[in-house]
Amino acid sequence: MMKPTNEMAVSFLSCSANESFGRAAVAAFAAQLDPTIDELSDIKTAVSEAVTNCIVHAYRDTLGVIYITCKLYEDGRLSIRIRDKGCGIEDVEKAMQPLFTTSENEERAGLGFAVMESFMDKLRVTSKPGKGTTVTMYKTIKRRQAEKNT
Amino acid sequence: MGVRLLLKDGEMTALLSGEIDHHSAREIRTEVDEAASKVKPKRLTLDFSGVQFMDSSGIGLVMGRCKLLQMWGGSVRVANLNPKIEKIVSLAGLNQLCTIVKDVNYDEAYE
């Protein structure tokens, strides 16, 4: 595994008002890779889904801390780890199926993991019931050579 | 985040603006549903031209309004999606649930 060239960590309370803070913090850190607006939007959307999962599912009816760690690598790869110490997921594979939701009457579309999977290059989810869930996502930001040279 | 509601000939338009996530979707839902339940419009247009960001909470928002309007035989259409929002809308397959239209303009006399 390559050593990261830069790293950041933030943690915040699982209030829904912090959803915009979470995605903005990651986007601000990712900005140093000079991503396109579309790449940045993909990252913000994926982070927003993961953070919302922590608030809606992991810490349902309670408040807990959401931990985000981002790492940058020399090859332009960005890793984002979003971790909670909430209720955990019994069956990760089932939870990751598109349209599966446990919050039907709260108008959750059941698309969180599907969005993370399609907007990022790679997604890994590990969970222990009663202990919490860790979502790790990767995206490589291509260097825009043509613009760099001018 | 904000909602502006327009009404004309039994049709309602909700002009949405700002960022739509799980937090802001709740407020939008309350505002739209309160007015729609009173008026019972035959068509509700959700206009996204002022929306800069949307995650899957926005999909839930559209799906929920479709369900509400169905209660009195009304329909929902979604208008003026930017390419970023269109990406998540097509991933969700919203076109199977409601009409998606481009470039809808509203004349001044609409409000």
UniProtKB/TrEMBL annotation, chain A:
SUPFAM superfamilies attached to this UniProt entry: ATPase domain of HSP90 chaperone/DNA topoisomerase II/histidine kinase (SSF55874)
Protein name: Anti-sigma F factor
HAMAP family: Anti_sigma_F (MF_00637)
Enzyme nomenclature, EC number: 2.7.11.1
UniProt domain Histidine kinase/HSP90-like ATPase: residue ranges: 38-143
Catalytic reaction annotation: L-seryl-[protein] + ATP = O-phospho-L-seryl-[protein] + ADP + H(+); L-threonyl-[protein] + ATP = O-phospho-L-threonyl-[protein] + ADP + H(+)
Enzyme class: transferase
Annotated signal peptide: none
Family matches, as SMART domains: HATPase_c (SM00387)
Keyword ATP-binding: yes
TrEMBL record, chain B:
Name of the featured protein: Anti-sigma factor antagonist
Record family assignment: Belongs to the anti-sigma-factor antagonist family.
Highest taxon of source: Bacteria
Residues in STAS domain copies: 1-111
Pfam families tied to this protein: STAS (PF01740)
InterPro entries assigned: Anti-sigma_ant, STAS_dom, STAS_dom_sf
MF-aspect GO terms: anti-sigma factor antagonist activity
PANTHER family reported in the protein's UniProt record: ANTI-SIGMA FACTOR ANTAGONIST TM_1081-RELATED (PTHR33495:SF2), ANTI-SIGMA FACTOR ANTAGONIST TM_1081-RELATED-RELATED (PTHR33495)
